[in-house]
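Is this the right way to post structure tokens for a design question? Let me know if I should format differently. Anyway, here goes:
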């Protein structure tokens, strides 16, 4: 518990996650975990926005409230307490450093096991820092690139192009330069848009593209997977 003065206390992020583990549907619990370990927060209805500029009115930007490692340690410490087992199960599918709800949803859709409606990819590093190689620096003025989802073992990046932050000539030019520099380093970049995430058929093409670049085969075409995928998408609000 954390004191906020005048005899008032609030639960810590770790305790909050544990308490919600038996109350939220599994995908919603994952969303909570990504948010607690990420650099964004959804605004409380009716609260004043703390956005840093007019284009960020729907999200708060902040440092992570906790980490996956800390959540696991707390849940293990609370073994036997209601919610601990469910929390530990969910934490296998959570990564640190998500920067937005859509990055979280993209990761959930790609990495959850088939039985939950995901494509079974390994968890990526989120918002990983990649420094351009010397040869790539010749064509770039960036000292490093922040990549939304990065699988270092196979040198694959998935970049979420939001409708808000990836429009306009300057932004498009920056994204193109970033993609070219990463590809010059041998990193494959797959761009994912909001429209692709929202469409089952389009997102399937994205997943196949990522799988090919990873050298993976996707074995998911069966009615059980389709039903699980539809349920996952409904729960995530897609």
């Amino acid at each position: 518990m954390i004191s906020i003065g005048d005899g008032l206390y609030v639960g810590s992020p770790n305790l909050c996650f544990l308490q919600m583990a038996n109350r939220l549907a599994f995908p919603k619990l994952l969303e909570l975990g990504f948010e607690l370990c990420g650099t964004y927060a959804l605004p409380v209805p009716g609260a004043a926005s703390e956005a840093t500029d007019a284009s960020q009115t729907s999200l708060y930007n902040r440092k992570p409230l906790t980490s996956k490692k800390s959540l696991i340690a707390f849940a293990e410490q609370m073994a036997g307490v209601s919610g601990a087992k469910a929390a530990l199960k969910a934490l296998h599918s959570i990564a640190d450093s998500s920067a937005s709800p859509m990055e979280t949803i993209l990761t959930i859709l790609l990495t959850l096991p088939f039985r939950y409606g995901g494509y079974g990819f390994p968890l990526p590093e989120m918002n990983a820092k990649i420094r351009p190689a010397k040869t790539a620096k010749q064509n770039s003025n960036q000292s490093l690139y922040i990549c939304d989802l990065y699988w270092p073992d196979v040198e694959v990046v998935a970049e979420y192009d939001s409708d808000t932050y990836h429009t306009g000539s300057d932004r498009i030019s920056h994204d193109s330069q970033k993609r070219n520099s990463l590809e010059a380093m041998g990193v494959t970049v797959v761009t994912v848009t909001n429209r692709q995430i929202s469409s089952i058929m389009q997102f399937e093409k994205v997943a196949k593209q990522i799988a090919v670049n990873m050298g993976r085969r996707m074995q998911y075409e069966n009615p059980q997977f389709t039903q699980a995928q539809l349920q996952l998408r409904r729960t995530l609000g897609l």
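Format looks fine. Someone answered above. Worth noting: The beta strands are 2-5, 8-10, 40-41, 60-61, 125-130, 145-151, 156-161, 188-193. Residues 49-57 have pLDDT under 50 and may be disordered.
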